[in-house]
Amino acid sequence: MALRLGTENKRNVAIAATLGVIVVGLVIWEVYHFFLSPSPVPAPPPAATASVGAAAGSGSGQNAERVPVNLSKLDPTLHPEVMAEAESLLYTGSGRNIFSMNSAPPVKIEQVKGPVRPVQQQVAQGPSGPPPPPPIDLQFFGYEARGNVRKAFLLHGNNIFIASEGEVVDHRYKVVKILPFSVQVTDLLYNHTESLPLTRS
């Protein structure tokens, strides 16, 4: 019986060896760049205070020019020389310096000589009470009598209603009493009763 050494598949062995060499190379490359690559040098700060210092030194009162700043290149390192230059700036404005106690006193606001809003004169009114109810907008122009039952003919605008005593007209007016020459109607909305005379057309 022949002994099998496991080297009959040389193709698989060659692929495994090649992959191993690639992995080792990648590991060495990453370690080199992580530990041995030089650190980036920070960019110098923008000279934003140069125009401010020039304007303050000249005393001409001109506004300083705005210098665009790229936040991606902003250097977080403190620079004492720049801070000292900013502290040495003098206030050259024409108004009052709110940061100095020796500055000119503020201008006093002129006193108001009259009321801000005119005073409305109150008109004397009599004793107030609830407003009177509106008149009932119905016209009584006839009635019909059959035995003891009477029906009134009422006109509201272009609408004609025929109602007996106790019935409600136009969802608001209740017919209370029907007489030959008048009809008593109650406005249910205001609880107000009127006697409407017979209208002859």
UniProtKB/TrEMBL annotation:
Entry superkingdom: Bacteria
Transmembrane stretches, start-end: 12-35
What keyword terms does UniProt attach to this protein? Membrane, Transmembrane, Transmembrane helix
- Stretches of Low complexity bias are at 48-57
Q: Where is this region: Disordered?
A: 46-65
Designated name of the protein = Uncharacterized protein
**Organism lineage:** Bacteria, Pseudomonadati, Acidobacteriota, Terriglobia, Terriglobales
